Amino acid sequence: MEQYSAIVYEPFLLMLYQERNGLTSFNRDRFRQCISLQYRKEDEQSNGKQFLERLSFQLLEKTKDIIDNCGFDFNKESAYYATLGMKKENAYLYVRGHCLYNSLVSMGSKLCEDTAVDFEQNILKPVLAFEEYDEISEIKKDILLLKTLRKDLS
């Protein structure tokens, strides 16, 4: 995840910069398309090296001409988002989770091929610590409150 974060960090900051400034060269959809990778033969080898290289290549290809020509200042953007808790090491927590999740399921399913193990159900879901995220705990509380209010109105 650390390598994934390092790869997506600058392009993610570029996308946020573009969105904040009303620019469209590298918007959310383009970023999402770049990070929505599925398994390819041998992606699982060498700790996902080929997958990470493909991710890096796609992001570089889509951003190389944009970064230098849109007023994007990496140091300024990095400092700003660091105040909000996002750093190079944890950028994976801020990108669209479904894209990362689907990539992990795609690769993990290949690793578990020809075994009795369902990667998503037996390995991935049990280790996801949803209760450790304050945001998810708050959402759960809000949903329970809405259910209570709904019952009271019925």
Write structural notes for this entry.
The radius of gyration is 19 Å and the shape is flat. The protein has seven helices and no strands. The protein is mainly alpha-helical and 154 residues long. The model has no long low-confidence stretch (mean pLDDT 86). Helices cover 64% and strands 0% of the residues. Helix 1 runs parallel beside helix 3 (49-67) and helix 1 (2-20) crosses helix 4 (74-82).
SSE diagram, text form:
Elements: H1 2-20, H2 28-35, H3 49-67, H4 74-82, H5 97-111, H6 119-127, H7 134-153
Keywords, please?
154 residues; flat; 64% helix; mainly alpha
The dominant shape is: flat
Oligomerization: single chain
Order of secondary-structure elements: HHHHHHH
Number of helices: 7
Percent of residues in helices comes to: 55-70%
In short:
By secondary structure, the chain is mainly α. Helices cover 64% and strands 0% of the residues.
